[in-house]
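Structure first, sequence second, as always.
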């Protein structure tokens, strides 16, 4: 047995076969049920010719098949690749080709796009559809696509697989805030340590063996709800963390985000642990809270709210705490390239101190590296800004991108670090303060301004629903701070009023010199900001 996803999953199944593992809509599966389905999916993949180490795409909204195919792939040493269901033709072509996909499992509504690009994806040799929409039968036929249900029905549910390894690969494509998506490659043992609970975030201690880690599932089960879509890493690793801990995991069965529905789901399933991705989910959930309480919907089961992958503003956290004062709010800091670099348990007493970005106690594996020398900064240095990095269990690199890999995954004095570009500094209390991504920072008149800090201040205003901040060219300042605002009910806010409101949170020179109003802010399904879109939008409106 290794620190490998399928190995650990099977060990948990053997310990608690009859315990519920997954709830998605009307579907409820025990650990044993899911294992059998994943075994069938694994044997199906082998039958259609998928070999160890080959890449298969999963192109679907949340569904049970997403999970069973993912786990099934790891059972045979294949590598599932997440496909963003929002991609247009060019983006989809790029991903399929860049990832060297040999097969794709997809919902039939995506058949027209796959058909349109078929001539540009010659490596893709197998198409398997999860359902059969009547309107897509011609497209499915043109793709020579196989019916997933029929294929898995013929497959055995037995565990009869080759020995697996902690060196088996996990790949997650991440779009980030700018540029084309990149495939981050991990050894499975390393990603389990950083994202799968192999290292206790609070103690910093590793489990001594896979067997010891699998025993976590014998503790009292928790009911958790993951709101990010499965094609996002945050949902995938909440899923695996739940598996390895023996929890019941609830997934959102709706394709759109309905905050009231989510609160009703929390009440219905008595969810104790809710995982979201920053303000994109936090804001609508907080807005819906008063009416949920007024309707008498019982959400008292909820004790932990965790946010990962995107900034979660303190003003929104405070709105949760007004209604649920005993709620523990945990900010997870990290990226696809680092895994977890720190955790912060939000305390109301921190108040506005937290507005520039999450503050968290320095874990053993996290360092701030000097921007020039790439040497770790002294914790007593509270002035210098550096790269937030992680050492120890870090990725191998970016798939098929040695240049970018050499820039992000480096060795300093024999220690390997991952430095994706997040900037940070030490606070006087010894904590690390996350400032933001250096690639989108704004240099205005020689002052470095971080968009996330300004965005958090703007969103403190009750009529600002969402916003993005970018730097735009300026003859006098080099760059000026420009904000795209999505307001409630499309009401414009007087600049003087907004500036006065923000004065409490940021220095006046950081306040936007230009405000642009938009109907909606473009974000990824995980809540990550699209700064490329924001830049283009500012140029269109200038």
């Amino acid at each position: 047995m290794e620190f490998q996803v399928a190995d650990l999953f099977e060990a948990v199944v053997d310990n608690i076969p009859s315990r519920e593992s997954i709830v998605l809509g009307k579907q409820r599966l025990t650990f044993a049920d899911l294992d059998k389905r994943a075994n069938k999916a694994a044997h199906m993949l082998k039958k259609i010719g998928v070999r160890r180490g080959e890449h298969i795409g999963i192109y679907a909204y949340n569904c049970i098949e997403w999970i069973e195919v993912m786990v099934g792939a790891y059972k045979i040493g294949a590598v599932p690749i997440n496909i963003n269901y929002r991609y247009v033709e060019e983006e989809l072509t790029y991903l399929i080709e860049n990832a060297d996909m040999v097969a794709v499992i997809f919902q039939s509504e995506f058949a027209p796009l796959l058909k349109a690009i078929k001539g540009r994806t010659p490596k893709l040799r197998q198409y398997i559809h999860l359902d059969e929409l009547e309107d897509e039968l011609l497209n499915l036929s043109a793709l020579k696509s196989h019916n997933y249900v029929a294929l898995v029905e013929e497959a055995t549910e037995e565990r009869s697989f080759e020995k697996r390894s902690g060196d088996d690969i996990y790949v997650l494509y991440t779009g980030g805030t700018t540029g084309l998506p990149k495939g981050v490659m991990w050894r499975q043992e390393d990603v389990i340590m950083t994202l799968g609970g192999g290292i206790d975030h609070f103690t910093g201690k590793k489990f001594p063996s896979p067997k010891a880690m699998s025993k976590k599932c014998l503790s009292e089960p928790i009911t958790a709800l993951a709101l990010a879509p499965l094609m996002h890493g945050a949902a995938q690793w909440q899923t695996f963390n739940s598996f390895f801990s023996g929890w019941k995991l609830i997934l959102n069965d709706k394709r759109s985000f309905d905050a009231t529905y989510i609160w009703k789901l929390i009440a219905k399933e008595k969810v104790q642990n809710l995982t979201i991705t920053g303000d994109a989910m936090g804001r609508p959930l907080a807005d819906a809270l008063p009416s949920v309480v007024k309707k008498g919907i019982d959400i008292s089961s909820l004790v932990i709210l965790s946010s990962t992958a995107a900034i979660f503003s303190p003003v929104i956290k405070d709105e949760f705490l007004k209604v649920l004062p005993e709620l523990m709010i945990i900010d997870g800091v990290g990226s696809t390239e680092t895994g977890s670099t720190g955790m912060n348990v939000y305390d109301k007493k921190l108040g506005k101190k937290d507005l520039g970005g999450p503050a968290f106690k320095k874990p053993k594996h996290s360092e701030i590296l000097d921007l020039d020398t790439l040497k770790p900064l002294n914790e007593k240095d509270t002035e210098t800004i550096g790269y937030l990095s992680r050492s120890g269990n870090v990725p191998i690199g970016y798939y098929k991108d040695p240049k970018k890999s050499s820039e992000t995954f480096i060795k300093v004095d024999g220690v390997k670090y991952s430095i994706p570009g997040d900037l940070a500094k030490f606070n006087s209390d010894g904590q690390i303060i996350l400032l933001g991504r250096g690639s989108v920072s704004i240099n205005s008149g020689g002052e470095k301004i971080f968009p996330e800090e300004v965005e958090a201040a703007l969103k403190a205003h009750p009529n600002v629903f969402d916003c993005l901040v970018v730097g735009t060219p300026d003859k006098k300042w080099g760059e000026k701070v420009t904000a795209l605002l999505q307001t409630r009910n499309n009401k414009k806010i007087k600049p003087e009023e907004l500036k006065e409101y923000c004065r409490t949170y940021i220095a006046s020179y950081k306040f936007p010199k230009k405000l642009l109003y938009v109907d909606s802010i473009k974000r990824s399904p995980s809540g990550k900001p699209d700064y490329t879109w924001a830049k283009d939008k500012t140029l269109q409106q200038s």
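Margin note: The longest strand covers residues 464-474.
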